[in-house]
Design goal:
By secondary structure, the protein is an alpha/beta fold. It is built from 18 helices and 33 strands. The strands form eight sheets. The chain has a seven-stranded parallel β-sheet with strand order 14-15-13-16-17-12-18, sandwiched between helices. Strands 19-29-28-20-27-26 form a six-stranded parallel β-sheet, with helices on both faces. It has a five-stranded antiparallel β-sheet with strand order 4-3-6-5-8. The protein is globular and about 85 Å long. Bound molecules: adenosine-5'-diphosphate and zinc ion (ZN) (2 copies).
């Protein structure tokens, strides 16, 4: 047996003697070292979750590479304590490593997103009929009934009837076995669906032809954008493209915005593909998530439909990646790692040489630039887009313009969008001017009359709705600004049946269903009402305060406004007799974003928007990186921010803006630095470097540093 020999400073061990695994501890602290070397003889593959000793503790880690040499002297090399039977795929390990760099996070944090969930699926006893078995002696009526019900249902959990099943098992009539709790009987798999599939329209057919070509090309482009007006039948294109990918023996990943509110698309995939569909989103319990993860991992589920984090589903051999409503901001994660599921989707599609199919009625300028566009310009039902009236509110002092009021009383089913929840924005004492503010954040508290509270929409602080002013005792309190709750009341006073959906409603899906079933009703709500639901009989769409989004000081505010109005317009007049109508109330009636939305001119708006961004050097022609330093003391925050900004400016990778103070949030003063740079990798590297200089100091004084690459 060869003794370890020193080669170029490192020690080469005979692989037969020693196997080395490079393992990343799943420890979230920034400033953790990269992968560490451990002795691991069972040759656990890349992606395996293992238990390792680290600084005298025992922690979870993931094998990220295997090696047969290490710089660690043999007597110092620690051994893996335990190898679990849980592992993720090598692809996802590679993805996590790429992603950590791409969003300036740490590999350990990124790995946590792709790591298998804790625990394994629960098991239970399943019973199934033994084909062709005949009873040796006559069965009782109850036994006969039980057997017949099994024949009708297919394999099912033994449940309460276990002892009776056991009797039948003794007769050789049924088999009972232990299997995953959520194991789906194969009888319900692909193709068993009874849903009728509509014939495609010419535009759908053309889209499918292009997608098919992309799916079979080796050299050509596979990254497509389905730009189709609402009601053009994009979902049907997704379903058919998915069926074709499955027919080729490949798997399908479908990303959708916040699933709880858009269950229709999940329903349509389930209806078409049955139990091979796994659903993944943040609303699942840990157990549900774990079960779905294992169904995907085991290959039982070959279609994943889910929100942002579903992009990490352990699918093998992906043939098609769909991103529906690709403009939706929920694809971007709000916490470190601040990844963008759309970027991750591109990475995975490339990795698998799969087709990437993004879809939207209002695609992002960046997607129009980067992807090959397939257009669908007409609605499936052959009707035009509803006319949009812009109602000038500059001289109005009421919530509803007379035109709007009249239209609402005439409409049979209307959707009204007001992007502010609660009753009123803020409360003020008419006597002394006292305003109710959040004790933790520099914002006013929002009145929620229904639950009788004043709430902070930033930190969750909540206090009882006051009867009088704590400063002067006056009971005369002014309620400024109007939110969805108050709108609900106002519309109710017109004698309309009003339903509301916003983040304060616990089961928006149920409200949407109620609205769908109603003959006559008004649905009011925040932007949630403009999202992916499909009610064919809506004949009026109303946007109130359409310029609210324009008031945000952000380069995307035009795009947001355009999207919101266009998405809502897409909800009106989708079926029935074609009397759809849209009203946009605004104090900025001449704003290009609003005019373009009213003219249904997505193409025109986006190309003008791209020109504007090119001139100003905004994304997609640059990358923005946002650094925020937070600390309870403003001077400390500012000092740290300056010490980041200075070297960042010297790195000359782009334009540095700030530090500039942000409003106080959750008791923390915040300072922001923005970097706008032509090269994303250079920007990320420079930011990492600048931030690393103050990291130790920051952690000593308990200051928080956050980096957001391409913030939303
Ligand atoms: P989009 O996602 O583009 O807004 P959908 O896919 O939701 O549009 O389609 C709108 C409606 O038209 C749905 O009710 C859908 O079932 C129906 N539909 C889609 N394609 C066809 C078709 N080829 N023939 C008839 N109905 C269709
Ligand atoms: Zn007062
Ligand atoms: Zn607050």
């Amino acid at each position: 047996m060869a003794a370890p020999a020193a080669i170029g400073g490192s020690v080469r061990h005979d692989p037969a003697v020693l196997a080395v695994a490079k393992i990343l501890p799943l420890v979230t602290a920034r400033g953790m070292p990269g992968a560490l070397d451990y002795a691991e003889d069972s040759l656990a593959p890349v992606g395996t979750v293992v238990r390792i000793p680290l600084h005298g503790r025992s922690v979870d880690g993931i094998v990220v590479a295997r090696a047969d040499e290490t710089d660690v002297p043999a007597d110092k090399l620690k051994a893996v304590e335990a190898v679990s039977d849980r592992r993720t795929t090598p692809e996802l390990v590679e993805l996590a490593q790429w992603m950590a760099d791409d969003v300036a996070s740490t590999t350990a944090r990124a790995l946590q997103l792709v790591a298998p969930p804790a625990g394994k699926p629960k098991q239970r006893l399943w019973v199934q009929a033994v084909p062709g078995a005949e009873p040796e002696r006559p069965l009782t009526a109850a036994q006969r009934e039980l057997l017949d019900s099994l024949a009708a249902s297919g394999p099912r959990p033994a449940g309460d009837a276990l002892s009776r099943w056991r009797t039948l098992e003794k007769h050789g009539l049924v088999a009972i076995e232990l299997a995953d709790e959520r194991r789906r009987p194969s009888a319900h798999a692909v193709g068993s669906s009874s849903a009728k599939i509509p014939a495609t329209t010419p535009e759908q057919e053309a889209a499918l032809t292009r997608i098919r070509a992309a799916a079979t090309t080796t050299e050509g482009n596979r990254e497509l954008l389905l730009h189709g007006v609402t009601g053009s039948g994009k979902t049907e294109v997704y379903l058919r493209a998915a069926a074709e990918a499955l027919d080729r023996g490949r798997t399908v990943l479908v990303l959708v915005p916040e699933i709880g509110l858009a269950p229709q698309i999940v329903h349509r995939f389930r209806e078409r593909f049955g139990d091979v569909v796994a659903v993944m989103h943040s609303g699942l319990s840990a157990g549900e998530r774990r079960d779905e993860w294992w169904r995907v991992w085991s290959g039982e589920a070959t279609v994943v439909v889910g929100a942002r984090s579903a992009v990490f589903a352990p699918l093998d051999d992906v043939g098609l990646v769909i991103v529906d409503e690709e403009h939706d901001a929920s694809f971007k994660a709000g916490e470190d790692p601040r990844y963008d599921a759309r970027r991750v989707a591109v990475w995975r599609a490339r990795h698998h040489q799969a087709v990437l199919l993004c879809g939207s009625a209002t695609p992002r300028p960046e997607s129009l630039l980067a992807l090959e566009v397939i257009r669908m310009t007409s609605r499936v039902d052959g009707r035009g887009m509803p006319p949009v009236e812009i109602v000038d509110m500059r001289r109005e002092h009421t919530l509803l313009h007379p035109t709007t009021r009249e239209a609402l009383t005439d409409a049979s089913k209307a959707v009204v969008l007001l992007n502010r929840r609660g009753w009123s924005n803020f409360l003020e004492c008419r006597e002394c001017g006292h305003a109710w503010e959040c004790p933790n954040c520099d914002v006013t508290l929002v009145l929620h009359k229904r639950r009788g509270s004043l709430d902070c929409h930033h930190c969750g602080h909540s206090e009882r709705m006051p009867a009088n002013c704590p400063a002067c005792g006056s009971v005369s309190l002014a309620q400024h600004g109007i939110g969805t709750e108050r709108l609900e009341d106002e519309l109710g006073s017109l004698g309309l049946q009003v339903l509301r959906v916003d983040a304060d409603i616990s089961d928006p899906g149920a409200v949407l269903a109620q609205f769908g079933a109603a003959k006559r009703a008004v649905l009011v709500g925040t932007q949630l009402v403009a999202k992916g639901h499909d009610f064919p009989d809506v004949d009026l769409g109303v946007v109130l305060d359409a310029d609210a989004t324009l008031r945000f000081p952000d380069f995307r505010s035009e795009e947001r406004t355009f999207q919101l109005v266009t998405q809502l317009a897409g909800r009106a007049g989708r079926g029935g007799d074609g009397h759809g109508r849209v009203i946009v109330q605004t104090k900025a009636p001449e704003h290009p974003a609003i005019l373009a939305a009213a003219a249904h001119d997505a193409e025109g708006f986006m190309s003008a928007e791209l020109d504007r961004r090119r001139v100003l050097g905004y994304p997609p022609f640059s990358t923005m990186v946002r650094i925020v330093v937070s600390h309870h003391d403003q001077v400390t925050a500012r000092d740290l921010a300056r010490d980041i900004a200075r070297p960042l400016a010297l790195a000359r990778v782009g334009e540095v803006l700030g530090p500039a103070p942000l409003f106080r949030l959750r008791g923390k003063e915040r300072e922001q630095i923005m970097l706008k740079a032509p090269s994303r990798p250079a920007a990320v590297a420079a930011v990492r470097d600048a931030v690393s200089r103050v990291e130790r100091r920051a952690s000593k004084v308990h200051a928080q540093l956050s980096i957001d690459v391409a913030p939303q």
